[in-house]
Every structure is written in C-alpha cells, then in structure tokens.
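Internal ticket #5521
Category: modeling
Description: The requester needs a full-assembly model to guide mutagenesis choices. All entity lines are attached below as received. Residue total reported by intake: 764.
Assigned to: D.W.
Attached entities:
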Amino acid sequence: MKDEAENLSDGSSRRNFLKKVGVGVGAISVAGIAGSSLLKGNEAKAKSGNLVKLLSPEGKLVEVDQDDIQSPKDIQPAKNETVEEHKLEARAGLPNRKFAMVIDLARCKNARKCVEACQEGHLLPKDHEWMRLYLLQDDNTTAKYWFPRPCFHCDKPMCVSVCPVGATFKRADGIVLIDNQRCIGCKFCMTGCPFSARVFNWKDPEVKVPEGHVYDPETNIPATEGTVGKCVFCADKLRLGELPRCVSACPMGVIYFGDILEDTVTNGNETERFSKLMLDRAGYRYREELGTLPSVYYLPPTQRMFPVESGLEDTEKSIKDRYKNVGPR
Amino acid sequence: MEADRKLISDLTPEIEKTSIKWYVTFFILFAIFSVGVYGLYQQISKGHIVTGMRDNVVWGFYIVNFIFFMGLSYSGALISGVLHLFHTGWRKPIIRMAELITIISLIIGPFFIFFCIGRLDRLHFLFLYPRIQSPITWDVIAIITDLAGCFLYLYLSFIEDFAILRDYPDLKVAPWKKKLYKTLSLGFTGTEQQHKILSNARMVMAAMVIAIAIIVYSVLAWIFGVTLQPGWHSTIFGPYFVIAAVFSGTGLLIILMWIFRKIYHLEEYITQRHFVNVGVLLTVIAAFYGYFTFSDYLTKWYGSIKMDSILIDKLFTDYYSLFIFANYIGILLPCIIIAFPKFRTIPNITIAAIIAVTALWVNRYIIVIPTLETPFLPIQDTRPDWITYSPTWVEWSLTFAGVSVFAMLFMLVSKIAPIISISEMQEKDKNEILK
C-alpha cells in the first residue's frame, strides 16, 4: 500500500493512476473513493479501443481506454479475512483518504429520504435516527432552514477522547466509528458530543439480522442493547467505492460526499471541486467555535430551491409535530 | 490494654447483645433494599428503557446519586483528616463516625455508576482496554486509590480499639468475634514504640486522605467540566465540587451525630459543643459553597452567550423552585440558624444539616439534568420522555436502596466495632475532651 501511495504522489502515469483508484464508467463522480488497495492484476490485455472521457482529480479531462477502467464492483476486497482481521482493518480505515461531506442547505426540503435510506441500510429501529433533520432558526430576524445532521466525524472528536475503553475511535481516513462489542454503555460520549449525534439502545433493538451476518463496526449491524450507535459515514460502502446511502437516496442532491485529499465531492450527479465549492458558496462548519473540526461542511441556504414551508407539506403528522415550536435559538 | 467497663458498654452498645429495635430497623431497611434489587432486576432484564433516561438526558438519578455519595465521603477526609492534623481535642468522639461515613459512601457511590452503565457485563473492559485520556479512567484510578487510602486510615484508628476489646476479660461476645479482634489488632499491646508508630502512620494517612479526596472529587467534577456542554464547561467546577462535597459530608456528620446520640444514649460523649463546633464548620463551608455557586451562575447569567442564556432561562422557569431551594434556602438557612447563638440548639442544628444535605442533592440534580435538556441543537421530538427527564420507580427504588444500604452497613459495623473510638476516650483524655 505504501508503494501505491508513492505511485500516486509522483503521478508518473495517469493511466496507471486511474486504474488504481478504480473509477467506474458512468460513475465518474465516485472518482477516487474506492480503496487503492483494490488493484486488478497487471497482466497485459488487449485493449477495446473505445476511449472514454474522464475528469481527473486535478480537474483535467482525459481519455482512457475502456478496458483500463475498473468498475468498483470488480474490485471488491477478498472476503476471506477473519472477523478479527476485519475489525482491525475497520479500525485502521482506508489508506490515503480523508472523507468529507458537504450539505447544501439551499436544496433541502425535508424529504427525509436520507433518514429512511439510513435506517433501512443499517437495520435501525424506527425511532433511531442517525441522520436527523432539524428545522433551525438562528434569530427572530433571520430565516428558518432545514438542517440535516449526520455524525460530523470531527477531527478532534470529544466522543473519542472521553471513551474509557476505546470503543469509539478515529480512523486514518477521518471516520469515527463505534465497536459495539467493546462499548460498555457509559454514555460519556453522548454527553461529550455537542451535536447530539449519538443514540443509545435503551432496549433490545429487535431487528431481523440476515442469516450468517457477522458484526462489522463499519455498519454497526446489529445494534446491541446497552450500547451506543451513530452515523458511520457508510464506511462499508466507501470500502466498495460507493457513495453513502444518504447521498444516493437524496432526490434533491443536497448531500455531497468526497475526499478532501482529492479535493473532489459529488452528490451522485454533480461533481465539484471541494475547495471551489467552499469558496464560491461560502461553506462553513456548524459551531466552528467549539473547535471539534467537523468533517461535515454546510453551504448556507441562499437562493433556495424550495420555500422552507414546503418541507412540511407531505410529511406525516408525527414528524410535522416535531417542528411545532421551532423558534429562534 | 485497659479500659473501664462503662466506656466499653457505652460505646459498643450493640456488640454484646442485639436489641429487638435493631432487628426491626434492619428488616425494614432490608425490605427497602429488596425493592431496589427488584428494580435492578427489571432494568437488567428489560434494558435501560425502564428508567427515565433517554437519548438527550443520558445521565439521570444514578449519576446524581453517584456524585452525591462520593461527596458524602468527604466528611471523613476533611473532618477527621484536618481535625487530626491540627490536634483538635473535641474531634475525638466524632471522628470514627466521620471515617465510617467516608468508607461506606465510597463503597455505595460506585454502584450507581454500575446501574448507569448499559453493559454491566463488560465492566472489566475498564481494566482490559483502559484509555488514560478518558476522565472515567482517571476516576477509576482515583476512586480505587481513595478507597484503599481511606480504608487504611480507618483501620489504623481501629487497631487500638480492637486490642482493647481483645484484652477485655468479661466481654460477652461470640468466640468468632474474639478471634476477629485478636487477628485485627495485629498484636498491638500498647508499648511506647507501638504507639509512636501508630500515631505517625495515622498522621501521614490523615494528610494523604485529604489530598486523595481532593483529587477524587476534582476528577469527578472534570467528567462534567471537560465536556463542551453549557453549564458544565466551567473552570470553577473542580474546587466548586470539592467544597460542595465537604458541605454535604459535614451536614451528614451532624445528622448521624444526632441519630447515634439518640439511639445509643451517647449524650455524655456527644455534647452540644460538638454540634455547635461542627455546625460552625458547616456555616463556614456554606459561605464558600454559596460564593462558588454565585460566581458560577453570575458569570453565566451576566454575559450573552446564547447557550448559557437558554440554560439560565430553563433554571429560572422549569427548575425555579428547585433552584431556589438548592441555591438559596439550602445555603442561607443553615447559615442563619447557626450564625445566631440563640438558635444554636441541637435540634435546630440538625434541621439545618438536613436542609443542607437535601439541598445539596437537589443542587447536583440541577447541575446534571437541565444541561442535558438543553443541547446545542434544539430537541425536536414528539416523545415527551425524550424532551424532559422524569425518573421512574426503578430509579427511585435504587436511590432508596442506596440510602438503606448506607444505614444497614452502619448498623452492621456497630455490631462488631465501637462507633466512638474507645482508645481516644480513655479516662486520661476524657477530661480534656469533654471540658
């Protein structure tokens, strides 16, 4: 893996590079998300001759032969590792990655598809929301806006500092995960997190886990009574080179996901330079003053695509009631 | 080792015989304790859903009780440690009680942490995978050290008494008790050298327990102080918690002095003088404690930091009566009662102490709960129990179980050992002490 990293940094061969990062046809946006360890054999092969245009991480348009491109599906990791080996890998994280999320508040209309996809994907009980939708208003004089809140995967995570047993940890790729087979349920991380990102399994979650499923901190399935759970940035999907479930599920393209090292984020349809997006749209992080350095950035709700009230139109009553008393905070 | 018969039967009223009253009281306490055990069984079998805690208020009664009981353990460290170091004569009849409060509350306190933990079966992970950057790990180290230190300190004060009981010819106790005294007195015969060693050791431990106790309670405060939560994130919390702990420990000492004086007819040994002296101590501590409380809330209230304002608003609306009781009545009333000499009767001082201890418990409650009810991101929920915390019967039952165990342990100790140090009350000291 070290060699590959060096290869990447000296940029000797673009074709080689693209092969290594495994960009999928029609999924250009996923550029660089798949793990670089997922390397296809180097044996020589006849080329198809069909050239495909791709956007390189530097923002240049390049043409490569179709056969040099690997779909993320082809390059899944060997699944013959033991549970303990995988747990170690899940603690280490993907090498040479620094994941980040950008949430465009101008597009959010409380469709809640992100919440549903997350609950479905992680077999969460109905009342557990790792992704939560807030309706915020900063002051009487300012506007209300919808505010999706995943875990912020902070670079200075208070939850990780205060955990007495190392059940929650920060990976090299920036993701903060929980090993719920290690968690003792002291809930100190929940009081430590200033963003209420963590949920507790107050009772047996009673979820049907597929047969033969093995616990994996990257999905946190199955949830265990007496332990803490939270958004995992879909670390399992990232390992496969796919986008997190909430990103793919959002019909408005609110959520961008990507790699800060590659300076690229995508919502599945549009791919943007992370730095340019921040600059053009004045991106910010929630409560920067707390100094936890979140990996989740927000784009302010300017020139909105939907009026804020539209977020309450097709919502069921129990959800609507949550926002009854929303006022300045 | 010699001691007069009267002293022994006065100070060890329960060693030779067990009164009906003792059995009845113990049975009642045990019944209360059993309800707590049933509550715990419910909690373990059904999950923490049977408590009032939910995702916002993740710490409730259990943590409040934990810091409360740990605070009570201060009475031994301060009263006994400080008074010992300064050779205060009048301390002698009451230090044993103070030291017992320390040990017993130190044993009970951590149990409330066990009740609060979601996976009790993984408790040993604290030792298998400890992470030193977590204040909980600091706490584990500090509490274990404190327990060991206080236990040693208490034991040192017992050695001479055990020797007296061992040597007393016609003590009508079971043979196993005799044997126990023989073992526990470690061959102490009262030679000059033994006295010197023992007295030196007690001096060192007196200084140690003060230091350890300050560390333990500061660490406890930092569990809250290091977080970013409004109301908790405060530099003053370490010393504030230490003072609060001494306050409650002193208050409890007065209450126990009253109870033991009444039940075991110790009027001769525990006099009004002791109540006044400890009462004055309580007043001085109350002044400090009130000052810390005031400083903490004043700075939060005066500024315009939004989260602090929201918290203060909550304290002065939803928690108004509790706030007034804990931080005004609970501090000022004991001061007023004890400050005026004409109010200083034994019942009055005891009432002041009861108010002080209760108010301190409420003070812990309004430090822990309202902060958790005002997270940075507003609670937007339709489930009432997710929005406001209210304890369930399980939490109440375990709280009362804690109190009953406290009393039961005191009763059990009184069956084996003197509740006022016999050796300290020997005739030669007695005149000096009681005058």
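Resolution: model delivered.
Comment from assignee: Residues 1-44 of chain A have pLDDT under 50 and may be disordered.
Ticket closed.
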